[in-house]
Specification:
Distance between the termini: 52 Å
Largest sheet: 5 strands, mixed
Helix content: 40-55%
Shape: globular
Radius of gyration: 27 Å
Strand content: 5-15%
Structural class: alpha+beta
Number of helices: 22
């Protein structure tokens, strides 16, 4: 293994593109830091990867895409920046100087770039460290020091084991996110163009309304007697509708459908294709599809609950209007899988509510709830459960809540406890230990020192808002943890096939509780089995052996629109 040569000048060392250092299980350096130049990094990583180390990156997001571009994949990683973000709010981390230092620094959850974040459990034998050097080996020493500090911040308790799993899953997610971006969602440009031509008409110059939109705009102007109306301006549209005798306060589609007037049908049609033109129109197609692939940037842990976000092209909301353009290559198929009613099942596991677990076992969860306490009315059961998890406890949800509480007392008590924590300004955490940010000290002080009735009402409104957030945080955040473990298990099993000489395909898309894989058609049955096995393995990994089902629905299709 090459090492930093004593004859190398300091200027040469400072110009290195990376520093690699080999550590043993205690974090002790086995060799001096290795300075890597130019394009030599991929070759060194490929060589060391044969020993299956745990790579420690200052940021997977910064380093792994380049390695993938050079044809090098890695199996395991610990991402310093993502671990830092989790440990900042982790309630069961070991207190000490490191935690004090990161809690004093700027909090990414309060507005810093979200994608500077991932971690994983440390190998029992060795790991390699990356860092972009600033003065010789100083930067890699900083990474080593923070890595060891992070390891020391995880206690050797049952809570600590959960936290270690969370750090592992988050780092695995960072690897998966980079791999999905590299693989890309297969996209049929000609099909997308056909859809756009059918819905909008042919392409037009920037700033010009597509033909079909202009045609509908003309209809709106005629129906409303407003020849100069710009239908893209909500203010102008509202004014024109009220002048025409249509009493409305907004132009939301669900409210417009309640109105009987000839303008409503073309208006709804206009809004639908205007969204298509803006979000996934000709300009989007030219900007985001390259070589028949859509490659958004996934932001792991980009939402405070641990859910992912994305940057570029609206990856987390591929609309139904263009899903037929998401099409498998010849000889391949898409596998689309999603976890059924994941969040209420997570609530059953969190609360250890055996009655709710039984309602979900082997069947539709909402129907099970309905049969147990709502006279078989599935709609009422769903409204009540969603109200409990999301804090919609007034109106219809509020009316149904007593029935839900009497049937599933432990589940409802848990979310009500979480809401009370938030309303008091306290933090909560997910099952594996991701903590919610506590309320700002200024707000906590204001809660007890409101000087007027108006201030008191404002404080109480904010308290209820915080309660709704913490109520859902424990459920949504734990669901995100299960999904990370699901994908991590699936990736591990697919990599086993890859090492055995098979091409298992790739994970190419993820949205909260849904995944998409692009796989060779002959292996579709095998990968389907892995999808289901990995879901059960994720449940066992997170919760252990519990009587809660986490069923996954999976289909093999040629294009995304065929999945639902």
């Amino acid at each position: 293994m090459a090492t930093h040569s004593s004859s190398q000048s300091e200027a040469e060392a400072a110009s290195a593109t990376a520093v690699v250092q080999l550590l043993d299980a205690t974090g002790t350096a086995l060799r001096p830091p290795m300075h890597v130049y130019g394009n030599g990094l991929a070759a060194i990583v490929a060589q060391l990867e044969a020993g299956k180390p745990r790579w420690v990156f200052d940021s997977v997001h910064a380093w792994y895409p380049g390695l993938l571009g050079a044809g090098v994949r890695i199996e395991r990683a610990h991402d310093i920046s993502l671990a830092r973000a989790i440990l900042r709010h982790a309630p069961y981390a070991v207190p000490g100087p490191y935690l004090e230092s990161i809690t004093r620094s700027a909090d990414p959850a309060q507005g810093a770039p979200a994608h500077l974040l991932p971690p994983a459990r440390v190998s029992a034998d060795q790991g390699e460290l990356f860092s972009e050097p600033k003065d010789d080996s100083g930067a890699v020493e900083n990474v080593v020091a923070e890595f060891l500090a992070q390891r020391s911040a995880v206690p050797g308790t049952e809570r600590g084991k959960r936290l270690a799993l969370l750090l592992a899953a988050e780092s695995a997610g960072a690897l998966i996110g980079a791999e999905m971006t590299h693989a890309g969602v297969p996209w049929d440009v000609s099909e997308h163009q056909r859809l756009l031509h059918e819905a909008l008409g042919p392409p037009v110059a920037a700033g010009v309304r597509p033909p079909r939109m202009e045609e509908l705009a003309g209809e709106l102007r005629r129906h409303l007697g407003a020849p100069d109306l710009n239908p893209d301006s909500p203010a102008e549209l509202l004014k024109a509708m009220n002048r025409a005798g249509i009493a409305v306060t907004n132009t939301r589609a669900w409210e417009l459908t309640e109105i009987k007037h000839p303008v409503i049908e073309p208006l709804l049609a206009y809004k639908k294709i205007a969204r298509l033109a803006s979000a996934n129109g000709y300009a989007w197609l030219g900007r985001w599809i390259d070589g028949g692939r859509f490659r958004p940037e996934y932001i792991v842990g980009g939402v405070v609950t641990g859910r992912w976000a994305s940057h570029g092209g609206g990856a987390l909301q591929i609309p139904h209007q263009v899903r037929s353009a998401v099409r498998a290559d010849p000889g391949k198929v898409l596998i689309v899988a999603d976890a059924a009613q994941l969040e209420p099942r997570i609530l059953a596991a969190l609360s250890r509510d055996t009655h709710l677990a039984a309602a979900a076992r082997g069947k539709d969860l909402y129907q099970g709830i309905a049969d147990a306490g709502f006279g078989g009315d599935r709609a009422h059961a769903k409204v009540a459960m969603l109200g409990a998890m999301y804090g919609a406890t007034s109106g219809e949800s509020g009316r149904l809540m007593p029935r839900l509480k009497s049937t599933y007392p432990r589940a409802v008590a848990l979310v009500e406890w979480a809401a009370a924590q938030g309303e008091s300004g306290a933090a909560v955490s997910t099952f594996l230990g991701r903590g919610s940010p506590a309320a700002p000290e200024a707000w906590v002080r204001a809660r007890t020192r409101a000087a007027s009735d108006a201030e008191q009402r404002a404080v109480e409104t904010e308290a209820r808002s915080r309660g709704r957030f913490t109520r859902n945080f424990i459920v949504q955040g734990t669901a995100a943890e299960w999904a990370l473990c699901w994908m991590g298990e699936l990736r591990r099993r697919m990599n086993t096939l890859r090492e055995a000489g098979s091409d298992p395909g790739e994970l190419v898309f993820f949205l909260h509780d849904e995944i998409m894989l692009h796989v060779p058609a002959p292996l579709a049955g095998t990968i389907m089995e892995l999808v289901h096995e990995s879901a059960q393995a994720a449940a066992d990994l997170v919760f252990g052996s519990i009587p809660v089902d986490f069923p996954v629905s999976a289909v093999v299709v040629g294009s995304y629109d065929q999945a639902k």
